[in-house]
Every structure is written in structure tokens, then in C-alpha cells.
Prior knowledge:
A: 18 strands; B: Rossmann fold; 9-stranded mixed sheet; 13 strands
Amino acid sequence: MSKKIWIVLQQREGKLHRMSREAIxxxxxxxxxxxxxxxxxxxxxxxxxxxxxxxYQLDEVLTASDAALADYTPGGYVxxxxxxxxxxxxxxxxxPHTYQSVDYVPRxxxxxxxxxxxxxxxxxxxxxxxIWKRPVLTGKLQARVRVKGGGTVLATIQSxxxxxxxxxxxxxxxxxxxxxxxxxxxxxxxxxxxxxDEVDLTKADIIVGVGRGVGGPEKLGxxxxxxxxxxxxxxxxxxxxxxxxxxxxxxIGSSGQTVAPKLYLAVGISxxxxxxxxxxxxxxxxxxxxxxxxxxxxxxxxxxxGDLHEIVPxxxxxxxxxxx
Amino acid sequence: MRIAVCIKQVPxxxxxxxxxxxxxxxxxxxxxxxxxxxxxYALEEGLALAExxxxxxxVLSLGPDRVQDALRKALAxxxxxxxxxxxxxxxxxxxxxxxxxxxxxxxxxxFDLVLTGAQSDDAGYGSTGxxxxxxxxxxxxxxxxxxxxxxxxxxxxVTREMESGMNELFRVALPAVIEVQAGLNHPRYASLKGIMxxxxxxxxxxxxxxxxxxxxxxxxxxxxxxxxxxxxPESGAGAQLIEGDPAVAARTLIEKLRTEARVL
Lengths: 324, 264
Ligand SMILES: Cc1cc2nc3c(=O)[nH]c(=O)nc-3n(C[C@@H](O)[C@H](O)[C@H](O)COP(=O)(O)OP(=O)(O)OC[C@H]3O[C@@H](n4cnc5c(N)ncnc54)[C@H](O)[C@@H]3O)c2cc1C
Ligand SMILES: Cc1cc2nc3c(=O)[nH]c(=O)nc-3n(C[C@H](O)[C@H](O)[C@H](O)COP(=O)(O)OP(=O)(O)OC[C@H]3O[C@@H](n4cnc5c(N)ncnc54)[C@H](O)[C@@H]3O)c2cc1C
């Protein structure tokens, strides 16, 4: 039986989210591995199809439109997608693993009785069975999981796992889905900046990224000295900010700033995906970490393995020599 | 307000991780456990709100006997009672099966609000709270960076994190499940008095049947996802690794950054 795969795209003001394109790539690859078709699904207030969606190799572009979908709400999205999944029974429905998807897809799974594979980074197909890989222990390990039982499987696709430019081009047609009565469960009040953005790290040439491994605010001295000697700015992983060791405008990652310096020194940072998405565009990544298995070494050009409290002062000494 | 807080006990991320012999999960021997990071913030949020409104916090956790330590800690911080879903039948469940057990335990009582963390630091599905909400028929909000109860407890104004340093603001009706992100408050420390009092606070240990469930609904039997195995990611594939004496390693690194990568 030919498998039916849907890819629910996220768009904002008529523009596709970057991770939507990655999800299209994932859906096309799943369709070809399983033998089946991939279609895109777009939710909106007016049925508009974002720019170039019709120029991908897709079976169809399905649109669900309703005035209640003007702003994203879980009630609206689950109310629009749930009955459509029930009526058309896709085998797999893929979503970009964005903060919006994670907000409503578990609820969609719960309401439709579908299985859910969150944060997939790859899949292998053997016969009819799909085995998914996903990070566990904040990326320190990867698990292989499989779905038990039949019915629709929902999966959210993590950033960076399927390159957007590997999505195949083609041409396709739009078809509208029937949307019933929607119950909006949130009164939308607006958006705001999360903190005072006083520090702009996006233009920095060199960044010293501080992680939880540094161990406390009283131990930041040598790392700050390193930043000064090397002519860089200080950035940080989320726990450093959450614990109040550094202010929020230093946070790098999916919730913070996205940086691409020519040199990024990750000091005591394990390299969780949410951190990586904010810094993997750096030209040269150096990781200083005592744990050889830390995922940060995957994207590092150079790795120094050992205790940062010994290594950072030693680097400072070498840098200070050449400044004399 | 009557507030339920779901806390999960997870391996201490600072620990060296060892994979169990069957390859399916971690080797729990000699491992230290802590309350999941975002759950610590959820608990603080609940305790502060209960103090402000003159209510109480009930903590719930699903997991084996070791989980008692996490519950005692929450009781020492100020929760008034605990529910421990400790029956073997609850073991090895996915987010769905775990949510089913938690929702049934929550549904036995009247709560005005349920708080959970946004995501566990071990399995990390980020799903359990939203599924609990679905089962209770309540609204939910995931990745919450702050909220204010309004309208005499009838609704809450929620600040939810979006990507790239932006927040989204909206209002939901209560009761609801609010799934909080780490960093929204400063979790308190337990006092000696709190630790003493915690010893006398009750921990209820219902079996599935006490919640109107069977062993088929929960744990591995009630799950749709099966973990086949876990492994360390292929690490250091492209990285040149520099090991050994810190002074020598430092000199080697700077030399390479200057002459090989030419970034200094
Ligand atoms: C030996 C072992 C075997 C396992 N086998 C499987 C398996 O085969 N398949 C599988 O999918 N998973 C398995 N798990 C993972 C299971 O522990 C997960 O708890 C479950 O899937 C819940 O999802 P999560 O941890 O991703 O929570 P998330 O959805 O990320 O958690 C969000 C929030 O929900 C609350 N919460 C989650 N879990 C609990 C809990 N137990 N008690 C109280 N509150 C909670 C917390 O507030 C948490 O912050 C196994 C775990 C162990 C230890
Ligand atoms: C929705 C969501 C959004 C998120 N957004 C972000 C984000 O924007 N940015 C972000 O960074 N994270 C984010 N996170 C958190 C992310 O998942 C990780 O938990 C976090 O990045 C881990 O930070 P860390 O590497 O500093 O800490 P850990 O993972 O605890 O790593 C510490 C590292 O330090 C090493 N270490 C310890 N001591 C020493 C020593 N003495 N010498 C050398 N090395 C040492 C350890 O080996 C370890 O590798 C988000 C999570 C979620 C769920």
C-alpha cells in the first residue's frame, strides 16, 4: 500500500519558516523510502499559499483556512488538523520541531489517538517499519525508537537534521480541506522582546561561550580574562543565564541570539541542539570540555579535553606572552 | 488556590553516563538523581502562588522507589502532600502512558491549576503536560516564562517563549496546565524546619486500580513508543582533539588557531 505522508508547514506573514523547508525534505525522503506520496499542509485565515510551496515536488498542497486561524492557537490548530487527519488517515504527519509545534502537536496526538515521535533527527526504514533516532539526555545520548500499534504517526523534525536545500523541486496543486467549527482557547495579547537586548553578539568576530561546566559566577574570572586577551565577547548557554551568572542578553541558542563569528570557543558547554542552532554557523569552533563524548565535539574543529579550570588559565598565559 | 505540580526525577546531568547492559537505557547503579530542572521552577512557581493565595501545593511523581527522595525534597520546600505513582505497572511508560496516570491521579481531586516542567532532561519529549491537559479537557500552555493569575482565579495571563528572544502574550481560562520553562524564578532552598516537617507529611501511593486504570493503560503496556536502544552520538568526527598537559595543550591550540585556522 502506498503510504500517505503529510508535512504541516509553519508560516508567518506569508513566509515559510526555514524549518518548514527542512520538514519538506524529511517528508520527501520518507515518502521515497517507504514508497508513497508527500503532501504539504498549510493553515491560514485566507487559504494563501506561501511563496514557493507550489514549486516543491509534492503530491498536493492542502490548505485549511478559517478566520480563527489568523493567529496561532492550539485550539484552532488541533481543531483544524484533528478532523482532517481522521477523515484522510495519513500514515505519517511531519512537523518542524519549532516551539509552536511542540506547543500543540502533543495535544493533537492525544486528541486523535495518533502516536507521537518528538524531535526526530533521522529515520531508517526496514520493510514497512520506520525506526526513528532522537536525542535524549539533552543530546548526550541518542535513542532509537519505534512505534507500537497502527494508525497515524506524528513526528516533529529537529532543526538541521534534513538540509532544506535537499528538498526536491517540482510543481503541484492546492486543494482545500474542510474545516469545521473551531474553538479558540487563547486570547492573543501580542508579542514582546524577552529582555533588554543591550548586547548584540551577532556581529562579534570572536565569542567565548560559557557553559554550566564553568561551575558558578565566582569562577567566571579566567573566562572573562580569556575573552579580553583574545579580543572577543562573552556569550553563554541557557543554564548560565537561568542561574543568574550572566544577563539574558548573553544567551546563545534557539531562545537567544544566533551568532556566526569566525571563532567560537565553547567552554564547559555540552552542545545540546538548542545551543548548537545558535552558533553552528561559526567558521571555527573550539570546544574545551572534560567529557570526550560531549556532542559539542561533533561540530568543533578543535577540541581540548580536560579541566577548563586548568586549560583556560594556560591559554591566557600563552595569549598574554604575545601581548607583552 | 489548589495547585498540583508534577515533578520528574532524572539523572544528574553532571554525572558520567553509563549505558545499561541491555542497551535500552542508562545504568542506574551508582547514578545520582535530581528533580528535573524545569520542574524545580514549576514547583517554586506553585509554592509562591499557594503562599500568595492561601492555598496548597500537592506534588505528583511517577517512578520507582528512588523518586521518594524527590518528593520529600518538594515537601521540605513547602508542598503539603505528595502522590507517588510507584506501582511496577507504571514503569517504562512513554509520555502518553505517563500522562494517563498523572491525569487520572489529578482528576481524583479538585485543582485550580496544574504546573509541570516544559521538558524533561532525560527522555525530553516535551509532551507530558499538554497530554495531561488534553485528558482533563483543560487549556494548556507550553514553554511558559511567566504568568499572572487574574479575575479571582478565573484566568491567567501567560508569557510564552518563542524562538530568537521573543515572547508571546495571551490569556487562558483556568483550570489549565501550565508547562514552565527553566529560568522564570529563583527556586528556594529547604530550611531545616522544612526538612523536619517533611518527614511527617503524607505520601499517597495509589495503584492503577485506585485511579480507575488497569495495568494495560499505563507503563510499557500502555505506551505507543518503544525505546530500542540508546547510544553516544558519534562524537568528535571532524574535530582535532588535543589532550594532555594543559600548558602544552594551550600552546598547541593557540598555534593551530594562528597558523592553521588563521582566525587569530
Ligand atoms: C527504564 C526506563 C525505560 C523507559 N522506556 C521507555 C520506552 O520504552 N518508551 C518511552 O517512550 N519512554 C521510555 N522511558 C522514558 C520515560 O521515562 C518518560 O518519562 C516518559 O516517556 C515521559 O516523557 P518525558 O520524560 O519525555 O517527559 P516530558 O514530556 O519531557 O516532561 C514534561 C513534564 O512532564 C512532567 N513529567 C514527565 N514525566 C513525569 C513523571 N514520571 N512524573 C511526574 N511528572 C512527570 C514533568 O513536569 C516534566 O517536566 C523509559 C524510562 C526508563 C527509566
Ligand atoms: C525549549 C528549549 C529551549 C532552549 N534554548 C536554549 C538556548 O537558547 N540556549 C542554550 O544554550 N540552551 C537552550 N536550552 C537548553 C539546552 O537543552 C541544554 O540544557 C543547555 O544548552 C545545556 O547547557 P550547558 O552545555 O552549559 O550545560 P550541560 O549540558 O550541563 O554541560 C556542561 C558541560 O560542561 C562540561 N564540564 C563540566 N565541568 C567541566 C570542567 N571542569 N572542565 C571542562 N568541562 C567541564 C561537562 O562535561 C558538560 O559537557 C533549551 C532547552 C529547551 C527545552
